Amino acid sequence: MNSKDEETIEFMLDEGMLQMKDGDECRKIENPKSPIPSLRYLLLNITNRCNLVCKHCYLGKPGKLDIDIGIFEKAISQFAEMGGLKLMISGGEPLLHSQFWELMEILPSYELRVVVLSNGTMFDESTSKKISHYANEVQVSVDGIHSHDLFRGKGSFEKNHSRD
Fold first, then answer.
1. pTM of the model
2. pLDDT more than 90, % of the chain
């Protein structure tokens, strides 16, 4: 690692963007031989519900469609059987799925890295703690201090950053 890398990591630690963990806590993820072609990453848009109206959204206007729990579970099961490694859950805003937490309850049965892609506006301390039991990572969209509201709607940057 060069000094520029070390400086970047130190900055991210100081800003709370990274956290150091104690110990060698590693989760073993088996890597079974998969059929050809291989599917290692899966992005599931579980809803088209959203509380923002982003100019660059590829889903169009927000709606009220939610993936059925049975279809979700079947997709996850088949993905795991194929040797899948990383499941990315998105939407619309995935936390707006009418049965979001029921979907999350399915995930611990599978050895997958789970990433939730969110606009971040629905997270508070309680939601953050709860989702940490199911997801390895949450990615929150931020387009910039001044440009965020331009892309995602007036007041969305403040909604995303007003929580401690």
1. 0.69
2. 49
